[in-house]
Every structure is written in structure tokens, then in C-alpha cells.
Write a structure and sequence with these properties.
The structure is a single chain. It is globular, with a radius of gyration of 16 Å. A two-stranded antiparallel ribbon has the order 1-2. It has a two-stranded antiparallel sheet with strand order 3-4. Strand 7 and strand 8 form a beta hairpin. The protein is of the alpha+beta class. The longest helix has 10 residues. The chain has three helices and eight strands; from the N terminus they run ββββαβαβββα.
């Protein structure tokens, strides 16, 4: 990702398993293994996020699913379909990787959760101080409000899970 290379040691957590960046994703137990997912002693911890990798993706505009650089625009999942909404995770996703995530992640692909998906540019995701969690600051990431955007002419479109599956995603 950009000038950063993050490589697991040859033996990761005692197992002969590599999780390099890129597509196609390694398959583990019939599921694609996201780049930010940690490997536990008994296999992938699909409900967990490796914070270092997630932070690398956020800081260097990389995809949390495949670990590769994102283009000018990428996609994020939001808690609700509106400007200023909280981003479900801190990093963005390629269109193809979002389709993988919707197909395999039960939480992200669950229409009942009401997540919305929108295309963003790198500066559209901003931190908001969420107090502290233990001794560490808790930062939440939000979609930059329309009034604060550098490109107010850009039209924001919010898609539901069904919209993404039916229509697909626009590519830039």
C-alpha cells in the first residue's frame, strides 16, 4: 500500500499460512480471508479486525478486504443513509471487494441492519473523538457532512444492500 509493505512472518501464529494483499483472497473454510482479519490459533477470527492493518488501510487509502491501494474513489458502509453518518469500519473498500464482503459477511449483508453504502473520496471520511476506551482514545469515523466537503458539487448517493446487489456499483 503506497510505500508501506506489511508482511506476516512465514509462520503466522504457528500455522503455515500467509495472508498477502491482493485478489483473489485466500480461502479458509470456504470463506475468503479479508486482509484485515487476524488469524487465531484455531483459524481466522472473522468477527475481529487486526487494528494495525485496518489503520494502515485508513491512513494509506487501502482496501480492508484485499489490502491493495484504492483508486480515486472507493465505498464505505454507513450506519444510516445520511451525511455525517458513522462509518461501520474505518477503512474503505473496492467495488469488487464490497461485493465479496456482502456475500460472505453476515452482518454487512444483513439488510435488516439498515446499513447504507456510498462512494467516497479519501477526504470524505473524518475522525470524530469518541472519548476514551480504557487508556486509549476511542475514535469514530464519519462521513464528512455535505457543508464541509471540498467538492460540494459531488452528488452523494446512498444504496441499500439490495441496491448494491441488484444495481451493482458505479466505477470511477
Amino acid at each position: 500500500m503506497k510505500d508501506v509493505v506489511y508482511v506476516h512472518p512465514p509462520r503466522y501464529k504457528g500455522a503455515d499460512f500467509q495472508n498477502p494483499a491482493g485478489l483473489p483472497r485466500p480461502m479458509v473454510g470456504g470463506f475468503p480471508f479479508p486482509w484485515v482479519t487476524p488469524m487465531g490459533d484455531d483459524g481466522p477470527l472473522f468477527r475481529e479486525v487486526e487494528r494495525v492493518k485496518a489503520e494502515l488501510c485508513r491512513r494509506f487509502w487501502g482496501c480492508q478486504v484485499c489490502g491493495d491501494d484504492l483508486g480515486a474513489a472507493a465505498w464505505v458502509a454507513l450506519e444510516r443513509p445520511e451525511e455525517g453518518a458513522a462509518v461501520v469500519s474505518s477503512a474503505a473498500i473496492h467495488p469488487a471487494c464490497l461485493r465479496i464482503a456482502l456475500d460472505y459477511c453476515p452482518a454487512l449483508g444483513d439488510a435488516a441492519r439498515g446499513y447504507a453504502f456510498t462512494e467516497v473520496l479519501e477526504d470524505d471520511i473524518v475522525p470524530i473523538d469518541g472519548g476514551t476506551q480504557g487508556r486509549a482514545p476511542k475514535i469514530r469515523w464519519h462521513l464528512r457532512p455535505l457543508s464541509e466537503r471540498a467538492r460540494p458539487e459531488r452528488v452523494r448517493v446512498f444504496l441499500s444492500v439490495a441496491d448494491v446487489r441488484e444495481q451493482g456499483l458505479r466505477r470511477e
